[in-house]
Amino acid sequence: MIRAKGAIVGIGELKPQRLTSGVATLEMIAEVSRLAVLDAGLEPAAIDGLLVGPQVGETPQHVPATVAEYLGLAPAMANVVDLGGASGAGMVWRAAAAIEAGMCETVLCVLANNREEVAPRSPNRNPIREFDVPFGASGANISYALLMQAHMAAHGSTARDFALIAAAARANAQLNPDAIFFGKPADVEMVLASPMISSPLHLYEIVMPVAGGEAVVVTSAERARSLRKRPVHLLGAGEKVTHRAVSQAPCLTSGPLKSAMARAFAQSGTRADDMDLLSLYDCYTIMVATTIEDAGLCAPGQFGAWLRDHDLSHQGDKPLNTHGGQLGFGQPDLAGGMTHVVEAVRQLRGEAGERQIGKAELALVTGNGATMSEATALVLGAA
Q1: Are 208 and 330 in contact (CB under 8 A)?
Q2: How far is CA 47 from CA 42, 51, 332, in A?
Q3: What is the pLDDT of residues 90-131, one digit of tens each?
């Protein structure tokens, strides 16, 4: 039997919003943290570890100290996790590792962002600005379109194959009242008819940026047994970083998640086919397609056939992103990756309501940062 490496005992989530006004990021962090600690049945004083994301709103430095002060915490372990969309999943295993090391017992992992009509700008002097942007690779849309073009060229995948992913996300979002696209389904034809943003990426294949927040509380497996909610155990984790700029990617049709997932499966003694829920990071449809293939669910280039062979709804044989994924729920900046963790916990607890899957014992959660650059994978299990 695989020994649990820690347990998620509390979750918090803010409903995504297109824009906020007069709300500081710290306020949103405080509210979603309150919800997570309340869900865990703990008092704030029980939190002795804190993991946050980088540059929280108006706080570019000393972020853990600023958040701890604002929340009235005095953690024995505090740090920043800076892995882009992989930050949420990365926090979970780091929390468990800190607990295992005896640095703390109960860790608050929190990410949130406001979204003002005029976004703040900050200087960015990393190499991508010198070697990629001047040649047209400016922004995520263009870089992920390049990855999608590469997949089509290498494997013959089609626009319709990728559109299946977006359509499934929208369909699942119809059972999540908090999703930004709740009440707005989109079938394959609608996805393909949506505006072309960066060929071959259509608008509906790209996440919508929103304001929001997500938080989880991680504690030791021993302490989890004494709390009121059914714990969700961390059984395995993997992580891999290969590059920052897409021009430096070692491969355009496979990413670092392949290695991260392999490690998570090895630690947990499981395989991709064992998972009852696939909670896969989905900033773009190409990201999901590559993850399905890198997980070993199908051969390279065969994700389209795999999608057609399976039902991705909560009632299906391969439930995928039952909250709607970020393509259906919205992407609250770095907290977008944490939505996949929170949904997995809901499903494994049996608390997903109308979208609850029938059998929920194992879940694969993935996170992705930059341009298929930073990767984290978790295998979570129900108690």
Answers
A1: yes
A2: 8, 11, 24
A3: 999 999 999 999 999 999 999 999 998 877 666 566 778 777
Whether the link from the prior residue into 200 is cis, omega within 30° of 0, is yes
Q: Which two tokens stand for residue 162?
A: 């990728």
Burial category of 302 from C-beta neighbours within 10 Å (exposed 0-12, middle 13-18, buried 19 and up): middle
Please give the Cα distance from 366 to 360 (Å, whole number): 17
Give 157-222 as a DSSP string: --HHHHHHHHHHHHHHHTT-TTSTTTT----HHHHHHSPEEETTEEGGGBPPB-BEEEEEEEE-HH
CA angle 74, 376, 270 (to 5 degrees): 115
Burial (Cβ within 10 Å: 0-12, 13-18, ≥19) of residue 123: exposed
Three-state secondary structure call for residue 123: coil
Write out pLDDT tens, residues 131-185. 788 888 788 999 999 999 999 999 999 999 999 999 999 999 999 999 999 999 9
Residue 2: is its pLDDT beyond 60?
no
For tokens 């263009």, what's the residue? 142
Domains and CATH numbers, the chain: 7-115+211-233 (3.40.47.10), 138-204+236-382 (3.40.47.10)
If you search the block for the tokens 């729920």, which residue do you land on?
329
Report which DSSP code applies to 369: E
Strand partners, 206: 284
Closest by CA to 365, choosing from 5, 36, 93, is 93
| DSSP codes, 219-267 | E-HHHHTTSSSPPEEEEEEEEEE--SSGGG-S-SSS-THHHHHHHHHHH
Q: How far apart are CA 114 and CA 57, in angstroms?
A: 7
Answer whether residue 266 shows pLDDT above 90.
yes
Q: pTM of this prediction?
A: 0.95
| Identity of the residue numbered 188 | V
Beta bridge partners of 12: 215
User: How far apart, in whole angstroms, are the C-alpha atoms of residue 21 and residue 10?
Assistant: 28
Within 10 A of 383 (CB to CB), how many other CB atoms are there?
A: 16
